[in-house]
Amino acid sequence: MGTICYLIRPCSGGMQKHVDELLGHFRQSYRLILVAPRGNLLVKKARQLGIDVHELPLSENISPLRDLYTLRQLLVILRRERPRLLHVHGFKAGVWGRLAGRIMDIPVVVTVHNYPAYPVRGFVLPRLFRTIENAHGHWACRYITVSEALAGYLLKNTAIDEEKIEIIHNGINTAPFEQALQTDMPAAKTCLDFIKKEGTTLVGTVARLVPQKGIRHLIRAAAILSGRHPHLRFVIIGDGPMRGYLEDLAQRLGMQGKVFFTGQMEDVPLLMPMLDIFVLPSCSEGLSLTVLEALAASRPVVASRTGGIPEIITHDRTGKLVPPGDSQALARAIEELISDPDRAGEMAARGQARVKALFSREEMFRRTGRLYRKFMDTPALTEVSDVR
Question: How far apart are CA 364 and CA 18, in angstroms?
């Protein structure tokens, strides 16, 4: 049984869910090793699955001495374990993973989950990203992007060969969301019934509270709608470094009793059906797992026209798309859905069918597994560099 090593940066949200799914599935076919930062939730989950774990002091911040120590520790792990393939997730992990793979003669696959140089209006980070990728982007044998938009971004901003890029959309298990729709779930009702009372309409999101998720625009849209639609309530499920700022913003806009922050909550399949409308106002997005989950739960969706989201949602057919950062457009789209619930329901049903057909977990596993086999069945790095 061949060995695959997963190397990840500090992560949560979609990337964490994605790697968790891969670990759970491919442990049946390969010996898996997880190399991850200390304290990452995946470390605990991997150990519960019986997967060997090595904790590494890998952070997103640039610190030359610490980073060199991290590289040295990674090389020690790879020399000891001798995996047949190194699968890297995240930009910083990709920097050291490709270098370590080059030194150890181990083929490297890099999954690109999002735009590594956010905020895109900056100058230093995009330039640094292009410099690094052009210097040793060719050291990876293959790049997986979770959306066509990310593939286009790499081709435009780096010298990575198009032949090395493979698009494998994120996939989800739709069954828990469908089951939650068909069953009375008192646990979920207990979580949100203090917000969703009789006669109210609940608009909500599930997101990590970081700048690129654009939650500030949802709060401003809520303030625009509140006067015209006093029955609306807004719930923000998730946590992150911007929570304090967002709570202050809601208070400054007079949204006490209208906008609620729940913090991090588990059992998203049980919570999604309680939302009347799901909103994701991202400024930057690779391919949103929460949009897929909302559609799997047959929720009407309003989301930003950014990144890979238009690959999931067809405007006015499977949901509503609005320009990123436009609170007025966000408010209008929400208002259109609450004003025409029948049409909103039709869009949600079409969105659910689309997710089941095109964004299944099984298809993601099938295509990833096919890529793994090309590398695992080939004896040397020099022979896999041209595998297609």
Answer: 10
State the Cα torsion 309-310-311-314 to the nearest 10°.
130
Residue of 150, 134, 265 lying closest to 206 (CA atoms): 265
Is residue 255 predicted with pLDDT exceeding 80?
Answer: yes
- pLDDT the model gives residue 189: 61
Considering Cα of 296, then 300, then 302, then 306, what sign does the dihedral take?
A: positive
Structure tokens at 140: 């990876």
Q: How far is CA 156 from CA 118, 159, 267, 372, in A?
A: 16, 8, 39, 26
CA atoms within a 13 Å half-sphere pointing along the CA-CB vector of 10: 7
How far separated are the first and last CA of the chain, in Å rounded?
A: 22
Range name among 83-97, 130-144, 189-203, 373-387 with the lowest pLDDT average: 373-387
Strand partners, 109: 87, 142
Angle at 342 between CA 201 and CA 276, to 5 degrees: 25
Tally of CA atoms within 13 A in the half-sphere of 171 that contains its CB:
20
The pLDDT value recorded for residue 349 is: 97
For helices 124-136 and 148-157, the axis angle rounded to 10 degrees is: 80
Q: How confident is the model over 9-59, as pLDDT tens digits?
A: 877 778 888 999 999 999 999 999 999 988 778 888 999 999 999 998 877
Percent of the chain with pLDDT over 90: 68
